[in-house]
Amino acid sequence: MHFTIQCVDKPDSIDLRMATRPTHLEYLKANQEKFIVVGPVLDGEGKPRGSLYVIDMPDRATAEAFIMADPYAKAGLFESVVVRPMRIVFKDGQQIAG
Predict the structure, then answer these.
(1) Count of C-beta atoms within a 10 Å radius of residue 74
(2) What are 37-58's pLDDT values in tens digits?
(3) DSSP H or E segment with residue 71
(4) Would you list the DSSP string of the chain?
(5) Of 62, 63, 77, 94, which has fewest CB within 10 angstroms of its CB?
């Protein structure tokens, strides 16, 4: 099942994000087979302001456990985290579902 995870960073937390980034990237690499799309969400100046994950997990509990184990979450970077199921209709320029 696919899920979106939308994370918003706490205000003025760019230093925490950058300090935690190496371990965050290691965590992502260890889980990359579960990803459809993952990356930072940028503000108007092009600086990271949050993260967006589109992932394939067996259920919501697993998706929630995944994000809570992310080094960014463990470091207290996120102001909010929203996990929602989704259905992919288009992928790689092709319609895959109705």
Answers:
(1) 13
(2) 999 999 999 999 999 999 999 9
(3) helix 71-74
(4) -EEEEEEEEPTT-HHHHHHHHHHHHHHHHHTGGGEEEEEEEE-TTS-EEEEEEEEE-SSHHHHHHHHHHSHHHHTT-EEEEEEEEE---EETTEE---
(5) 94
Q: Is 75 helix (H, G, I), strand (E, B) or coil?
A: coil
pLDDT grade for 98, boundaries at 50, 70 and 90: confident
Asked whether residue 73 carries a pLDDT value surpassing 90, the answer given is yes
Residue with tokens 């199921």: 85
Match 């909010």 to its residue by tokens. Answer: 80
